[in-house]
Amino acid sequence: MSGLREKMWLIITVFLVVSLAAGIIFLSIRLAHLQPVEITLYDPKTLNSSENISIGGAVVRPGIYEAKPGDTLTSIISSAGISDNADTRNISIYIPAKTEFSQPQKVNLNRADVWLLQALPGIGEGRARLIVGYRDKNGPFRNIDDLLKIEGFGTSVVDKIRDYVTVVD
Known about the structure:
38% of the residues lie in helices and 8% in strands. The protein is mainly alpha-helical and 169 residues long. A two-stranded antiparallel sheet has the order 1-2. The radius of gyration is 28 Å and the shape is elongated.
């Protein structure tokens, strides 16, 4: 009877040791994915006076952001606001060649919500709400210069966003 008892204890001990080893391996694999990834750029191109950076995907305020010398990738992405469902382990960066023609997507003044209009340069929440309110009251914009009909919008504000907006689908 004691031989059977010793075999049972041996089996239980081996099972516990194997389970403990498997648990340690499993946790180490899971934790390895949580380690931060350091990216080092060699001989980086410095920004000239300012550059336009288009940010899209799982961000709160997608759009085109002006990056000034000294800005970091983190600060620019933070400006767009990372959404709750963003996978920050997989951030894509695409830099087109000078010969590559790419036209940024424009914000449609007749469809854009307040949050999207706020991404435009010089347009804060107040001006974005004025645009939506004017559109709701007077119907769709026929051209970009219709913004001048809104109180608080001058030619300097309209000229600043002219290349980023459209009124056609």
